[in-house]
Amino acid sequence: MEINGVEIKDTYAEAFGIKVTRLLVTAATKKLALVAATEATGYGTSVIGCPAEAGVDCYVPPSETPDGRPGYVIMICNGSKKKLDHELLERIGMCILTAPTTAVFNVLDDADEELKTGFKLKFFGDGYEDETEIDGRKMHVIPIMSGDFLVESTFGYKEGVAGGNFFIIADSKMNGLVAAEVAVDAIASVPGVITPFPGGMVASGSKVGCNSYDFLDASTNEKMCISLKEQGIESDIREDAHGVFEIVIDGVDADAVSAAMKAGIEAACTVPGVLEIDAGNFGGNLGAHKINLQDLF
């Protein structure tokens, strides 16, 4: 099938299950809320090497937040409950509690279980901590030099989906880059998802395992590398393509990831020079979720 003359290959994106949390970070200003949200989601591109996958989901205006201040929803993901608990404690404690004027709320719907992150963080108050209620939520009040830091007592998590993806194959690197940026912008309007890589784009790509070194769990996806194709090495890239970018998506469930893939692909296909849309899969070695590209439309 085609969209705007761009071929959508008959293949699937192979995604995997992951535990997902969704937090709302508010602050006195939109800028301060974004600073805290950005800090808390750093070093969170891929669980191949990072302690979590994390990113900013969406902006929430003051009229829609529990404390009437601007905020950003962030998502933090990990395959282990224990590790996710640790990441929440460290990222909220080190990156949000330390940021000016912030508060943190749980905004995950239909949680499978809860983590007592706020309860644990309250002990930073050294016996001077207190409790309050905001919009029916139990909040711990921790005195800090600039005022008080407020954090909800518990944060829910559920089984989500990570690694939804698609490849943008373009006639040049710059056209591929423009298409990738347009795709990420479109995905930003879909709730419940993040694109955790830098700028939402995966420049590197990867594959499960390694051909040459047995100590690596993941390595470059050589059949999708432009420079190797141009050296005459076996490639899966069409002859007239000279730019390849991958978009990776994590979400609260498969429906959210599929909606984000659809939005991103449709946006990418509006950019001149985009030749086809492909996806990454590894024969079931990565995960159980298979999202067929053509079934999205």
UniProtKB/TrEMBL annotation:
A matching Pfam family: FTR_C
Residue ranges of every copy of the Formylmethanofuran: tetrahydromethanopterin formyltransferase Ftr N-terminal domain listed in the record: 1-144
UniProt-listed Enzyme Commission number(s): 2.3.1.101
Phosphoprotein found in the keyword field: no
GO molecular function: formylmethanofuran-tetrahydromethanopterin N-formyltransferase activity; hydrolase activity
Residue ranges occupied by any Formylmethanofuran: tetrahydromethanopterin formyltransferase Ftr C-terminal domain in the UniProt entry: 147-296
Membrane-spanning residues: none
The keyword ATP-binding appears for this protein: no
Keyword vocabulary terms for this entry: Acyltransferase, Cytoplasm, Hydrolase, Methanogenesis, One-carbon metabolism, Transferase
GO biological process: methanogenesis, from carbon dioxide; one-carbon metabolic process
Pathway: One-carbon metabolism; methanogenesis from CO(2); 5,10-methenyl-5,6,7,8-tetrahydromethanopterin from CO(2): step 2/3
First-listed, main subcellular location of the protein, grouped into a coarse class: cytoplasm
Enzyme class, UniProt record, top EC level: transferase
Reaction(s) the record says it catalyses: N-formylmethanofuran + 5,6,7,8-tetrahydromethanopterin + H(+) = N(5)-formyl-5,6,7,8-tetrahydromethanopterin + methanofuran
Location of this chain's protein in the cell: Cytoplasm
One Gene Ontology CC term in the entry: cytoplasm
NCBIfam families: one_C_fhcD, PRK02114.1
Family under the similarity heading: Belongs to the FTR family.
Subunit structure: Homotetramer.
Purpose of the protein: Catalyzes the reversible transfer of a formyl group from formylmethanofuran (formyl-MFR) to tetrahydromethanopterin (H(4)MPT) to produce 5-formyl tetrahydromethanopterin (5-formyl-H(4)MPT) and methanofuran (MFR).
Protein name according to UniProt: Formylmethanofuran--tetrahydromethanopterin formyltransferase
Origin species: Methanobrevibacter woesei
